[in-house]
Specification:
Elements (H helix, E strand, L loop, with lengths): L2 H14 L41 H7 L3 E11 L5 E15 L3 E4 L1 H4 L4 E6 L2 E4 L1 E6 L4 E5 L21 E6 L7 E12 L16 E4 L11 E3 L5 E8 L7 E5 H14 L5 E2 L2 E5 L2 H7 L7 E6 L4 H5 L6 E5 L2 E2 L3 H11 L4 E8 L2 E8 L1 E2 L26
Length: 386
């Protein structure tokens, strides 16, 4: 028990042992003088913040802000006379992650732009696209400058639900706006977040209650060490304090491919998969099994040639457990075109291992190993992204 608590308890004990006369005055022993009333001074006891709660985010914001960028895009179209005219303009956020001039943002921030300008520390640069990936909504830009302030890329796998995070960006064009919150959840998928294209992207979002609005897209989500743990990407429509960020570990897996090839060349199994729900488990007699349920098989595709069947449940890919379709689609897409992989499959009461030679996934901009469509409507995002 702290000393402050002991003092308070002692004061309460003194007050409780005194008795009052019927007239309300304090009564002493018979014949004694009336004692002065005991006054207990009010003592304000400061409430110490929780050990992990920061008193301020000011130092973190001041250190990170010089690396956060304001993105302005222009879309032009050539008219019948041959003259070009502006048909659209956009605003977004970004951040420098390499001092040589490499900048990360969302693909939807720069998609369709004929001119991209990046404002860093009040200096405007013309940016070129190094690489971009629609299914994950990531884009890498380059500006011609050296020794730029930059943000280190952290470890999103190491973040925990309840950890403090800070978002910096340019909501509604209000440059360098800072907001703070916590990681509200991890592993949010396409079925949790609606309005992201045709729903065939690769999603494994961090959810946060840090304020994210239109214009925040592409900005960093930082841990308390000032490391980027996510790229702010989306918000839930008709909801308060529900924002989503691409985990930075997903981004780090793709960066070498985007810089080398300008895009992500994906491999595919040739199946359509969905989550394994209770009704499926009951129908197939699988108990509490987990995995990705095969809904359809592409004729003459890799899975078809390997003997994969509808209602098979894929439980492991190259020995790595598959808890659901999102995980399977991600690891299969990055395994490599032409690679022979082993799928562990539950078929009724049997467990099989099948070798599948992956082919190339077509239409890199918009496609992914197809998920099963969810017919149930749900609240989504407003048109576009934040």
């Amino acid at each position: 028990m702290t000393r402050a608590c002991v003092l308070v308890l002692a004061a309460l004990a003194l007050l409780g042992c005194r008795r009052s006369s019927p007239g309300g005055a304090d009564a002493g022993p018979p014949g004694s003088a009336t004692a002065a009333p005991l006054v207990s001074p009010t003592v304000a006891l400061p409430l110490a913040p929780p050990l992990d709660a920061p008193r301020s985010f000011a130092d973190l914001a001041a250190k990170a802000d010089p690396a956060v960028a304001f993105v302005k895009t222009t879309q032009e179209q050539e008219g019948r006379t041959g003259r070009r005219r502006v048909i659209g303009e956009g605003l977004g956020s970004a951040f420098v992650y390499d001092p040589s001039g490499l900048v990360l943002t969302n693909n939807h921030v720069i998609k369709g732009a004929t001119d991209i300008r990046v404002l860093i520390q009040k200096k405007e640069f013309k940016a070129t696209v190094v690489g971009r990936d629609g299914p994950t909504d990531i884009a890498v830009l380059r500006v011609e400058s050296k020794d730029l302030a930059h943000l280190p890329l952290g470890d999103s796998d190491g973040t925990r639900v309840g950890d403090w995070v800070v978002a910096i960006g340019n909501p509604f064009g209000l440059a360098h706006t800072v907001s703070a919150g916590i990681v509200s959840a991890k592993g949010r998928t396409g079925s949790d977040v609606r309005g992201l294209g045709d729903g065939t992207g690769y999603y494994n979002f961090l959810q946060t209650d840090a304020a994210i609005n239109q214009g925040n897209s592409g900005g960093p989500l930082l841990d308390l060490g000032g490391r980027v743990v996510g790229i702010n990407t989306a918000i839930r429509a008709n909801a308060n304090s529900i924002g989503f960020a691409i985990p930075i570990n997903m981004v780090k897996e793709l960066l070498p491919r985007l810089i080398k090839d300008g895009k992500v060349i994906r491999s595919a199994i040739g199946i359509r998969v969905s989550s394994l729900v209770t009704e499926d488990s009951t129908r197939l007699g699988l108990g509490d099994a987990t995995g990705a349920l095969v809904r359809s098989v592409l004729p003459a595709g890799p899975a078809d040639k390997a003997g994969v069947q509808i209602d098979d449940v894929i439980t492991a890919f190259e020995g790595e457990p598959v808890p659901g379709p999102e995980k399977l689609r991600w690891v299969a897409s990055l395994a490599g075109v032409g690679k022979a992989v082993t799928l562990r499959i539950t078929r009724g009461k049997r467990t099989l291992e099948l070798k599948v030679v992956l082919n190339e996934l077509p239409d890199q901009e918009n496609s992914a190993e197809e998920p099963d469509p969810d017919p149930a409507p749900a609240p989504g995002l407003p048109p576009g992204h934040p």
